[in-house]
Amino acid sequence: GKKSLRQKIVDELKHYYNGFHLLWIDTTVAARMVWRLLHGQVLTRRERRRLLRTCADLFRLVPFLVFVIVPFMEFLLPVFLKLFPEMLPSTFETESKKEEKQKKKLNAKLELAKFLRETIAEMAKRNKADTG
């Protein structure tokens, strides 16, 4: 059914609270990784990607905070998100946005695989024609 205005506001506040909480957790984990890097330890590929994502999220947080702090500017947030879809830190993404990104990546990978398969088939035909 339809949600009341109060319920929508509560849901949005929970979403922002959870986003900030996840960002705080990611930041503390990233700080530990930086500490390890400074002491000569090597990060795994997964840790390196997480550190880069967290740093990017922290840089994205600055323009996002302007929308949260300035009164009534949060009403412009959907417009800016339409213009700049990567503006939000990753911890503030909804499940539907994450699924949409995954679908786009999967479609791109499928197109690449199709292209490579066709290229290999073409090369095989050429080689067969050259040797035959």
From TrEMBL:
It is a single-pass membrane protein. It holds the Pfam family LETM1_RBD. InterPro entries: LETM1-like_RBD, LETM1/MDM38-like. The keyword Mitochondrion applies. One of its GO terms (molecular function) is ribosome binding. Keywords: Membrane, Mitochondrion, Mitochondrion inner membrane, Transmembrane, Transmembrane helix. GO terms for cellular component: mitochondrial inner membrane. Its main location: mitochondrion. One of its GO terms (biological process) is intracellular monoatomic cation homeostasis. Residues 43-128 form the Letm1 RBD domain. It comes from the Eukaryota. It is found in: Mitochondrion inner membrane. The keyword Membrane applies. The chain crosses the membrane at residues 58-81. This is LETM1 protein. It comes from Pardalotus punctatus. The gene is Letm1_0.
